[in-house]
Amino acid sequence: MLVREVYDFLDKLSPFSLQEEWDNSGVLLGDFETVVQRVFLSLDIDSDLVDSMEKNSLIITHHPLIFRGLKKIDFSKYPSNLIQKMIQKDISLISMHTNFDKTHLNRFVASDILGYDVISCDDFVCRFRVNSSLEDICENIKTKFKMDTLRVVRAKEYIKNCAITTGSGGDLISEIDVDCFLSGDFKYHQALEAKENGLSLIDIGHYESERFFGDCLSQYLKNFPLKVIMSNSKNPFEYMKDKK
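User: That's the sequence. What structure does it adopt?
Assistant: Structure tokens below.
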């Protein structure tokens, strides 16, 4: 298939025109007339993933590898080191970031992963019913996300409705009108604000909440003419546990 054919399919599924002005979704490496033989899905790109890919492949990521303007191409530094490898292997890249958050990913994590009934989706905020204790919600998240610990702001014990923004949603706290907000990368002063305003927070992690990108998109690629390979970059963070 041509990159153009894949792009057109993705654009109909989740229009790239919906991305935020500061975003950089779309074709980031390669051109529309490039022929690709297989498709990889991943949250991000890292060296291990690029090294494992075959030539003439297309990778579809959630996070754009090229986010801001590059003033220097230094092959010893990220992201230029990955760009060099990808060019040498004729690997093309399409990223679906904020457009896919708005149309699919937040709803998918709330309903398909966590198992809740979605009430509404408004740009980056997906609201859903829980009618459960904060403790039970945390246990559900830990089980479904396979997480041992969670950072929590305990403002309310009983939660009627929640909202979720996968990735990093701390800047949206002032707009949240439910009992509990799930997102990642919460900052200290955002936690203070939420506590004072009676909003419980559950930090579900940036990587942990968005690593379901491939699972979500793959649903729509089941009958795709090309082989679609589920992959993923590794979480750059490690969690150190006490030695016992």
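The first strand starts at residue 26 and ends at 29.
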